[in-house]
Every structure is written in C-alpha cells, then in structure tokens.
C-alpha cells in the first residue's frame, strides 16, 4: 500500500512539473516577445537603440548616465522633459507604427521604437 501511495505521489509531482514548465514556456516565448521594455541611457546613447514592442506596451527609459537627457519624438508627438541622473520616464504606446526619437541635449543621440503585432525585441532579453 505504501508503495502505491509513493508511486502516485511521484506521478503527481512529475505531472505538476510538466504542466508548470509548459505554462512557463508558453508565457515566456509568446510571439518571441520578452516583457522587458526598458531602454537604458548610458554613455550618451540609448541601449538598445532600436526596440520593438506589441501595441499597448509601456516602455521605460532609465537614465544611467552622468547628465540630464530627454526622450523627444522626432514627429513632436511626445517629450519626456528632463530625465535626471538615476530617474526614468515611462510611456504607453498603443498605436502601431515607428517612432524615431532623440535627446534634446544631444541630437546625435537617436533611437527607434517599432510598435507592431509581430514585435520582436531587437536588443533586450
């Protein structure tokens, strides 16, 4: 009797691990999109310089540099204002499309955000 109970316990544990693993894989790899929508500002550059996200995603820029920066859309649709050292700026992107952006203090600092249904991150993992 004890052997049957132990075997049932082992079978249950194996089935549970299989179900949890399958659920994790489905969540983690859906459409190849990760959930990290963070762009770091370091050494006067956006990293990654290009990022793709799904519609209705939030993107966060974190200023890890030693000076103030901004995130300003080239088409004028938004600006972060000053992002001080150690601070961040988060914005939701609902509509599909491509948004080019730059830093008001260093217009050579440029980035691109692509919002699409088949988005795959081109830099963050």
Q: How would you describe this structure to a colleague?
A:
With 125 residues, the chain is α/β, with parallel strands linked by helices. Helices cover 22% and strands 35% of the residues. It folds into two domains: 30 residues; 81 residues, Cupredoxins -  blue copper proteins (Immunoglobulin-like, Sandwich), CATH 2.60.40. A four-stranded mixed beta sheet has the order 2-1-4-6, with no helix packed on it. The protein has a four-stranded mixed beta sheet with strand order 3-8-7-5, with no helix packed on it. The relative contact order is 0.22.
According to DSSP, the number of beta strands is: 8
In DSSP terms (H or I, runs of 4 or more residues), the helix count works out at 1
Order of helices and strands: HEEEEEEEE
Can you summarize the main beta sheet? 4 strands, mixed
Overall shape: elongated
CATH fold descriptor of the largest domain = Immunoglobulin-like
SS strand fraction: 35-45%
Roughly how many Å apart are the termini? 49 Å
> Which parts are unreliable, with pLDDT below 50 for 5 consecutive residues or more?
18-34, 121-125
The overall average pLDDT, rounded, is 81
Rg, nearest Å: 21 Å
Strand order of the largest sheet: 2-1-4-6
* Oligomer category: single chain
CATH class of the largest domain: Mainly Beta
CATH superfamily grouping of the largest domain: Cupredoxins -  blue copper proteins
In percent, how helical is the residue content? Answer: 10-25%
In CATH, the architecture of the largest domain is: Sandwich
């Amino acid at each position: 009797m004890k052997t049957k109970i132990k075997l049932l316990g082992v079978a249950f544990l194996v089935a549970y691990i299989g179900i949890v693993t399958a659920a994790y894989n489905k969540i983690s790899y859906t459409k190849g999109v990760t959930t990290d929508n963070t762009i770091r500002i370091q050494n006067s550059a956006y990293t990654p310089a290009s990022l793709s996200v799904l519609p209705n995603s939030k993107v966060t820029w974190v200023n890890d540099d030693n000076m103030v920066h901004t995130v300003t859309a080239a088409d004028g649709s938004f600006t972060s204002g000053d992002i001080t050292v150690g601070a961040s700026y988060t914005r939701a992107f609902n509509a599909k499309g491509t948004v080019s952006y730059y830093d008001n203090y260093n217009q050579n600092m440029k980035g691109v955000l692509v919002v699409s249904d088949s988005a795959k991150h081109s830099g963050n993992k």
